[in-house]
Amino acid sequence: MRLYKSLALALILIAPIAGVPAIAQTVTAEAAMAATDRPPQHTERDAARKPEMAFLLPYIKAGDTVLDMGAGGGYTSMLMSTAVGDTGKVYVQNPASWVENYKMQPALDYLTSKRANVTVVVAPFEDIPAPAKPYDVIFAGMIYHDTFNDPKADVAKMNAALFKAIKPGGYFIITDHKAPDGSGLRDTNTTHRIDQQTVIDGVTKAGFKLVLDSDALSHPEDDRSLNVFDAKIRGKTDRMALVFQKP
């Protein structure tokens, strides 16, 4: 039985975005969110996450091989699983410490029990194994700042490994909470934000080209000073939405 028999997929032709080639036959956020096997802890987050998913999913098409970095319990992974379809593959990565400390295993077990096109990877960010087929898309959703918070981590090594593991023309997409301009890595483990230029500099140094700096997740009313988990600002932080491409 096909994985999405109960889901009427809304397929659309995406208009060209400045700096990015047109991407055809992708699944809308609404269609992906309509899958009936999604658990309540996912669906209750849809309203808050929809802008991010509407930004991401046009880059993912049927048959793609995708990596969801720092995927947590797989909220984005399940939506991407719908987008890549039966002929695609989603790798769902978390460091071992995250799986243990945040008790993620039941959620990951549920995900793999429902979606045959999902593979769970437990590995440090800089040691994510390359798939047999190079990635079409790599997504780091609100977690790129976290890659700097493990004192043993080597983010330059991570970026180089990701560049090697993605196909030419493939996309590395990053969303994250913006820190004040010029603050570098100062806030990654306090307010859980990161300076956008620091992200751009590190990723382009690995060989990627920045092709889109979008304001899709912008909240200019956020002065970027509060912890992203503060009730005053949670879900309404000023966020970067960056698309990099391997030449």
TrEMBL record:
SUPFAM superfamilies: S-adenosyl-L-methionine-dependent methyltransferases. The keyword S-adenosyl-L-methionine does not apply. InterPro entries: S-AdoMet-dep_MeTrfase_Alr7345 (IPR016980), SAM-dependent_MTases_sf (IPR029063). Residues 1-24 form the signal peptide. Keywords: Signal. This is Methyltransferase domain-containing protein. It comes from Asticcacaulis endophyticus.
